[in-house]
Request: fold
Amino acid sequence: MSPALSIYCSQLRSLPRLALGRHMVGPACLQRGYRGASPPDSGKDMLEIPLPPWQERPDEPLETKRARLLYESRKRGMLENCILLSLFAKENLNRMSEQQLNLYDRLINEPSNDWDIYYWATEAKPPPAEFENDVMAMLQEFAKNKKKEQRLRQPDLEYLFEPPH
Reply:
């Protein structure tokens, strides 16, 4: 085994449980970052870019928060989440309490890997304890699509201008 591979393997063994992947889920924290292939001319095998930690916005007005969360639900890193989260946001954001909006904000913005959110929502993987809450339950129930709706694209935004029902 090469010295570099030996060091890499010892570093892997020293990581806490569930630490392999793009983020680290430990008992107390969720590290955000991107880990992927680096450019060939960099001389490195892997590129790691830390992301700033997610921060709650306690002074943000509720309507501003709803508008931001609607936008962030539509503009994801993968089409599956763009569709799932934008439809979920259309159906649920306007009736969520402030606490639920904060939980949803954390859910869609703290994890750095959109696939994790998708797997948790579709119950392919269990969510970490810090994301097991009523908003996750609502999202998981929505993802089951019990009404068998066609969910092939994001909703048009005209509904924002319709009078409330």
Observations:
- The longest strand covers residues 33-37.
